[in-house]
Design a protein that fits this description.
Blueprint: H1 13-66, E1 74-78, E2 82-87, E3 90-95, E4 117-121, H2 129-132, E5 142-145, E6 169-174, E7 187-189, E8 192-193, E9 195-204, E10 214-218, E11 222-227, E12 232-237, E13 256-261, E14 272-276, E15 286-295, E16 298-307
Antiparallel strand pairs: 1-2, 2-11, 3-10, 4-9, 5-10, 6-9, 7-8, 11-12, 12-13, 14-15, 15-16
């Protein structure tokens, strides 16, 4: 009998070489079409992230500028270095009672201009929960009235247009002329309603009236510093009012810092630009912001214009 012969089947060296060559051709062809698409998609994602970063930065600045106390925006700009923009955001505001207003009469309701006063009503209600929901009396807030020149910064914020930090404020709801009691804004009868009343722990002599009879509630300033060398835009807050304005290289003393973006293009000749109609932004309420941000070879420039309400 013959023994069974087992034959082993496999690939020859030539077949393996041919297979490798074919796979190489297919892989190269695949890469020519797919890799550029993947690279382009990654570039789009990086640009989108940069645009988001820049938009968040300028919108945050624009928001603080828009709600700033009239005439409180201060700009320090050094081409090729960066800018510092300081402002005092308002927490709330209202129109104060004067003689001749409906249902406004008596020392407790009227605000005296040019003489010491400790309490007055506003026409209506404050609405910001940060203020209305505070525990009173409170020294966390200050009143500003009649500041047409940025005097709030004079003498470290002790000018008479702003109440001192030592003066506490009490907010209460009072009857606007009718009978009974209720929530601010509700009717109190006789075509009147309940409104807010401000009481100060010490007499305040506001030297100037407001052209729109507005009183503002503030807390502390805010500064944005864009620094080319550091490649950052930083928001500084929670620091006292100072007569010395911040600069691109001198942040406000004692402030808390929060990075808005760390992608400012340090290789650009002038990545941080702020433009106003005149050197005095308090006189002309217009600010144009320009930021250039970069990441992984992608660069984006974003411009934003903001109009200030400087009427006080």
């Amino acid at each position: 009998m013959r023994a069974a012969v087992t034959r082993c089947r496999g690939f020859t060296l030539i077949e393996m070489v041919v297979a490798i060559i074919v796979l190489g051709i297919v892989g190269t062809t695949f890469g020519l079409f797919i890799v550029p698409a993947i690279t382009a998609n990654q570039a789009v994602e990086r640009r989108a992230a940069l645009i988001d970063s820049a938009e968040i930065a300028v919108r945050r600045m624009a928001r603080d500028i828009r709600i700033a106390l009239p005439n409180s925006v201060r700009v320090s700009y050094v081409a090729g270095t960066g800018f510092a923009i300081e402002m005092i955001p308002t927490v709330d505001g209202g129109r104060y009672c004067l003689g001749g207003d409906a249902n406004c009469a008596g020392a407790a309701q009227l605000l005296s201009i040019g003489s010491s006063d400790t309490d007055f009503d506003i026409l209506g209600c404050f609405h910001n929960a940060t203020f209305t929901g505070a525990t009173f009396p409170s020294t966390a807030f200050r009143l500003v009235l009649g500041d047409s020149t940025g005097a709030v910064y004079s003498a470290a914020g002790t000018n008479a247009v702003v109440t001192p930090t030592s003066t506490s404020i009490t907010l209460s709801t009072v009857n606007g002329g009718g009978a009974g009691s209720g929530a601010c804004g509700n009717s109190s009868g006789a075509n009147t309603s309940y409104r807010h009343h401000i009481a100060l722990s010490a007499g305040q002599t506001f030297p100037n009236s407001s052209s729109r009879r507005r009183v503002f509630i503030i807390q502390t300033p805010v500064t944005y510093i864009c620094n080319k060398a550091a490649g950052t835009l930083i928001r500084y807050y929670n620091y006292p009012i100072s007569s010395t304005a911040p600069t691109p290289t001198s942040p406000p003393a004692g402030a808390t810092a929060a990075v808005v973006t760390d992608k400012i293009d340090a290789t650009n000749a002038n990545p941080c630009v702020v433009t106003t109609l005149t050197p005095d932004v308090q006189a002309q309420g217009y600010v144009k912001l320009s930021l250039v941000v970069a990441n992984a070879g992608e660069t984006v420039q974003l411009n934003h214009e903001t109009q200030l309400d400087n009427s006080q």
